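Reopening this ticket.

The earlier resolution said the output was attached, but the attachment link was broken on my side. Pasting everything inline this time so it's all in one place.
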Amino acid sequence: MSDTKDMRSQSEYRAKLLEINSKISETTKLDDIIIDLKDEIASLFEADRLTIYYVDGIKRELVSRFKTGNEISEIRVPLSPVSISGYAAFKNTLVNIKNVYDKKELSKI
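Inline output:
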């Protein structure tokens, strides 16, 4: 029974991913993609928040281009292992953390 549920879950995930990919292919403006699809993208990854960064090559920083939430207007993060997003960009790898407050989970990275 568990295998069937896992297969259904994977199938639903792939269908959502393909739908988002199709919508991305239909537009030419990055800002339109981000604004129109932010909720769908966050839902796909079961995320509460979403931040899209670009790399400032001169200052070697990640800079938030778009983010949900209104606490701060801009995020700047050095490309280094000091933060989660900086680490992911520095190592050029995907980092998926279920609970960022779990020190044991963070220490595995």
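Reporter confirms the inline version is readable. DSSP finds four helices and three strands in the chain. The first strand starts at residue 51 and ends at 56.
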